[in-house]
Automatic annotation (TrEMBL):
Cofactor(s) annotated in UniProt: Mg(2+)
Binding site for AMP: K192, G193, A194, P195, T196, G220
Single Gene Ontology BP annotation: nicotinamide nucleotide metabolic process
Protein name: ADP-dependent (S)-NAD(P)H-hydrate dehydratase
Annotated InterPro entries: Carbohydrate_kinase_pred_CS, CARKD, Ribokinase-like
Length: 284
């Protein structure tokens, strides 16, 4: 039997943890965002900025060389590691141990990048969020799913979900296929849409925030950064997914009266993360 839960303010307050007064950047979590390719460095800029603005102490990105200046100039707070390749990632290499890793925004699907993801998944044990081209690469070679460690968060939009689980004829079939997939591979699926549902085996959590203003480029990349941030801050995996999706939607609800549906862009999600957190505080 499926256990379905609406994610409202009450559910969020059960999960939300206020930072300790004596905390410092060294214990607020260090997140790594891996992604970007020529022409899609913006996806990593959005994701890493959202990661910082969701409370992570330190954020490093791993990107192709062509993104170095872009990242350093657009977000000076983020640290940058680069691949040996100019336009795509060919080997995931980093010399520290992050508390969480987000992979996929703007990553592209070059053969070199596919191989790099394969090698990385073989040995990785760090909590992981996989999005966008990270998921598309896995869809092309489903054997990679056997290498994905339990409790990995995947964040497909409907097309990415279809590439992973196959087509469906009804909402019921989509849900039952997604639940089977979550159980079989022990992954938490953030099934993006209106509304977004989070699936953890038999448990289905339905988000109650967000609106059509979010239907704009890069809002998913931002969500990846937000969930990765919460994971790096030691939230339980399921709580990181639930809280990230709720806050992400809340930014659009807060901004809507000022931006309208049309002029809201992914950067407006990031700009309103602070207000979204503050509205949680008011509820306490
Ligand atoms: N500024 C940037 O650098 C951006 C980079 N992006 C990156 O671009 C790459 C490709 O991602 P895309 O998602 O654009 O391409 P995809 O080919 O994965 O998805 C686009 C397809 O999915 C369908 N689709 C998307 N959302 C849907 C929904 N809610 N319901 C039904 N169908 C839906 C679209 O109609 C289209 O056919 C990713 O790596 C992504 O991270 C995008 O996030 C856009 C912004
Ligand atoms: N009509 C809508 N109502 C609510 N949320 C939406 C709507 N359209 C898109 N979203 C949200 O916006 C985000 C889009 O993610 P995604 O498609 O991956 O964008 P991108 O890849 O461009 O970053 C998801 O979180 C999704 O739930
Ligand atoms: Mg996306």
């Amino acid at each position: 039997m499926t256990n379905s839960i609406y994610i409202d303010q009450e559910e969020i307050l059960k999960r939300y943890k206020q930072p300790d007064k004596k905390t410092h950047k060294g214990i607020q979590g260090h997140a790594l965002i891996i992604g970007g390719s020529y022409g899609k460095i913006g996806a990593v800029s959005l994701s890493s900025k959202a990661c910082l603005k969701t409370g992570c102490g330190l954020v490093t990105v791993f990107i192709p060389k062509c993104g170095y200046d872009i990242l350093q100039i657009s977000i000076p707070e983020v640290m940058v590691l680069t691949d040996i390749q100019e336009e795509m990632i060919s080997n995931f290499t980093f010399d520290f141990t992050p508390q969480a890793i987000g992979i996929g925004p703007g990553l592209g699907q070059a053969v070199e990048t596919q191989n790099a993801l394969h090698q990385f998944l073989k040995t990785n044990t760090i909590p992981l969020v996989i999005d966008a081209d990270g998921l598309n690469i896995i869809s092309k070679n489903k054997k990679l799913l056997d290498l994905v460690q339990p409790k990995t968060v995947i964040t497909p939009h409907p097309k990415e979900l279809e590439r992973l689980i196959g087509k469906w004829d009804s909402e019921e079939e989509k849900m039952s296929k997604a639940i089977s997939f979550s159980k079989q591979h022990q992954v938490i699926i953030v099934m993006k849409g209106a509304p977004t549902r989070i699936i953890d085996g038999e448990s289905v959590y339905e988000n109650t925030t967000g609106n059509a203003a979010l239907a704009t480029a890069g809002t998913g990349d931002v969500l990846t950064g937000m969930i990765t941030s919460l994971l790096a801050q030691s939230y339980e995996t399921i709580d990181a997914a639930i809280l990230g999706v709720y806050l992400h939607g809340l930014t659009a609800d807060i901004a809507l009266p000022e931006t309208g549906y049309q002029s809201f862009i992914a950067s407006d999600v990031i700009a309103n993360i602070g207000k979204a957190f503050l509205s949680l505080k008011k509820m306490v």
